[in-house]
Amino acid sequence: MSAQKDPARYPFAGTRYLLSHPKLLSGVICYVIIGIIFALAALIILLAAALKPHAEAFGGEVLGWLLGTIAVFVEAFIIAMIFMKLMVSKAQEQLFVSVMKLEGCWNDGWEEPTMLSNLICCCNTTLLLQMVTLPINLLPVVGTMLYVALNAPLASWDLMSLYYDSIGMNEVEQKRKVVGKGCEKINPNTFFGDAHFRFGMSATFVELVPLLGPTLFTLGNACAAALWSCDIEKEKKRGEEERGLTGAV
């Protein structure tokens, strides 16, 4: 991996890249729109069908209706997050491959990534961790930084699995490369200095931006993973060329 570029910069570069290539955005925006429509539909249906039963289950009266409303919103939020994850994952797959091809770094012998299948393994863990740690984010500054740090390793794995799946790296190798390395020790050299951790922190942080985070920046993170993967591939080729020249001498 490139030692000259800070991985934390890729999420910002990815969003700039996406905005500078409108065709990329127009090709995947339908997935985001479908996700938003489904989220609103889930909320409306639950309010219409489940609010009264929930309120009665909590004993009725004012407090019961209040608790029932909160429960319905929580349920709608969870359902919406899961469905949005499905839609966004599909959009990210498409963006990743498109950017790699535009940059001339896609190998025709690779298999196109399938993040939807990863929801069964690493991505479902990512989503669960995000839901469990989300209340921490309500604490100003400290809570947000803690939330970002806790989610960084799995967020990096979630995104870079697009590349690792394409080159045929199995799940165990991916976990050892990304999560295992990032969680060995909490010190500046092996944790906060880890490339995948820094990439994951930056990617998680930009996704917290209201409105733009779950939409634009989430899609931009797929471009970020592609740009980092391109740099990895370019560095590999340079290394092979240097070894070839050395061997020739």
From TrEMBL:
Parts of the chain that traverse the membrane: 24-50, 62-84, 127-150, 208-228
Keyword Phosphoprotein: no
Pfam families noted in UniProt: EI24
Membrane topology of this protein: Multi-pass membrane protein
Principal localisation: membrane
Subcellular location, record wording: Membrane
Keyword Membrane: yes
InterPro entries cross-referenced by the UniProt entry: CysZ/EI24, Spore_wall_assembly
Keywords: Membrane, Transmembrane, Transmembrane helix
Official protein name in the record: Uncharacterized protein
